[in-house]
Amino acid sequence: xxxxxxxxxxxxxxxxxxxxxxxxxxxxxxxxxxxxxxxxxxxxxxxxxxxxxxxxxxxxxxxxxxxxxxxxxxxxxxxxxxxxxxxxxxxxxxxxxxxxxxxxxxxxxxxxxxxxxxxxxxxxxxxxxxxxxxxxxxxxxxxxxxxxxxxxxxxxxxxxxxxxxxxxxxxxxxxxxxxxxxxxxxxxxxxxxxxxxxxxxxxxxxxxxxxxxx
Length: 214
Fold this sequence. Notes:
Order of helices and strands: HHHEEEEEHHEEHEEE
Oligomer: single chain
Number of strands: 10
Structural class: alpha+beta
Helix content: 10-25%
Low-confidence stretches: 9-17
């Protein structure tokens, strides 16, 4: 019994009292870091935050069958922003190759696609979510939290909220009163490495993730 109590106390101290699993701590960290990007109207302004270059990824599941992904790379050597828009069949096979690939260039505030009509069919969004949405500590603390987690081994953390937000619903072409789950994830593994992802789900049907990293 004594040993059990000692072990229980150790686990409580290690995990139960970890300040990094505290909502206030997570929201301060997420809000401070993500406000560097959300919002950023012009993608080229990201070079101010990431002078060595950056990467933007956005993935969503279309009709539960296809993964639509757009990836852009900001090249610090010439300040160009380019990448690809792909359509890949949803599968557990990580080696699955895209069925369609469209080149994307971001020039003078516009997305230039190698196949404009096909791109419009695949990517229904008007730019990236970070061009529309403001995220900071005040915004996060005003939301209704659903869940949170923190991994003490690698510093990874996630936090989810229930939200009814006009900007988000307009972006996804939803009714302004639609309820969604807004999630955030990142890791403390390296202070020099910036990686934050935003997820949006509607009734666990519409799956979306947007990530900005350096």
